[in-house]
Design a protein that fits this description.
The chain has one domain (2-248): Nitrilase/N-carbamoyl-D-aminoacid amidohydrolase (4-Layer Sandwich). 25% of the residues lie in helices and 32% in strands. It has helices spanning 14-30, 52-55, 65-77, 154-163, 183-201; strands at residues 2-7, 9-10, 35-37, 80-89, 92-100, 106-111, 127-128, 135-138, 141-145, 167-172, 204-209, 211-212, 222-227, 233-239, 243-248. Strands 1, 3, 4, 5, 6, 7 and 15 form a seven-stranded mixed β-sheet that branches. It has a six-stranded mixed β-sheet with strand order 8-9-10-11-13-14, with helices on one face.
Length: 249
Amino acid sequence: MKAALVVNCVLPDVDANLAAVLNMTKDAADCGADLVVFPEAALTGLINNDDPSHDLPLGQTIPGPVTDMLAGQARERRVWLAIGILEREGERLYDSAVLFTPDGEIGLKYRGITPHWHGRTANSRIYGQSIDLSKVETSLGAFAFLICGDLFDDELIQRVRDLHPDWLLLPFGRCFDDGSYDQERWDSEEKAVYMGRAKLTGSTTLMTNYFADKNLRGGGFGGAVIVSKDGSVLGSFPLGKVGILSIDL
């Protein structure tokens, strides 16, 4: 399997972000990717502020017009396409991820289980989590999702181990408080922590983080990494840059 982990630049313009996602999917497919993975909240960034009047319009229905476009690109380019999306269902908002099949179907949908994507005082009737964790069997192996902070929940790690996916997809959205793209800090303070948590899952973990200007609320320092079952790094992409990490797995 050839995997492409995409680090896209998230702008305040959702339409521009969607256009970039579609174009970068095309670029990855043209380079032979079988699987294309985008970050958490790749169309908006984590710009939610716990105000429903601001946050609910950020959400996309799944399925809906935007996911139909993503599904169409997956079908046209014959790739598996994974992406994190803020999902709206009625008056509820979720931090979700979707895996589209090369036939343009939704092969797997996951709603984040831990609540770290919103503030502690967010209205629980609006800001939702799931309890469901599943996998999908494909010709490339079995896939499962976690999102960002889910990786640091010991119970979820054990549930992933019990599920035995071949590939764990981890869209995430991480930034430093000072808005920097500090590669040395990532390498010395955080990378080993993420690698250790990924190793605990017992699956090869593909994680990618969106890149955004530091003035975008919640806006991420980028980077991507693939961690093998034994905890070694199979490939990585630097912080502070837009691009694609391509690797044969």
